[in-house]
Design brief:
Blueprint (H helix, E strand, L loop, with lengths): L1 H11 L7 E10 L2 E13 L5 E10 L1 H65 L1
Antiparallel strand pairs: 1-2, 2-3
């Protein structure tokens, strides 16, 4: 509320009578916390004398909570995405290792098959 008090003194000074908007002003009271957008518009007569002020208070508490929740979910999504990229990289490495092992096994199988055929031919000739 200190910011509100400083800005309020600006608007009530003779030289500065511009509309003022304050966003997400935190108001803490016994029942909880409320966030307000406050819009202040001076009302002057034709001689520029201040007659009054139009004050609009908008409760943006729900919006603020939703924005906080959104940021939290966005951060969580970023962590999950990073974990998925890490897992994908690990799976890619594991897949490459499996393919290499499969090729080695196929090569061994061919070698065993060749040796078996060779041994069978040698026994048949003897």
């Amino acid at each position: 509320m200190r910011q509100f008090n400083r800005d309020w003194t600006k608007i009530t000074n003779e030289g500065d009578r511009q509309p003022l908007s304050l966003k997400n002003i935190k108001w803490v009271y016994e029942q909880g916390t409320t966030y307000l957008d406050i819009h202040i518009k001076p009302i002057s007569d034709s001689n520029s004398r201040l007659l009054g002020v139009n004050l609009i208070f908008l409760d943006v508490t729900q919006y603020t909570h939703l924005a906080d929740e959104f940021e939290s979910l966005k951060a969580n999504l970023a962590r999950i995405t990073q974990a998925l990229h890490h897992t994908k990289a690990q799976l890619s490495t594991t897949n490459a290792e499996l393919e290499s092992t499969q090729k080695e096994l196929e090569s061994l199988q061919q070698e065993i098959s060749f040796r078996t055929e060779f041994d069978v031919k040698n026994k048949a000739e003897n």
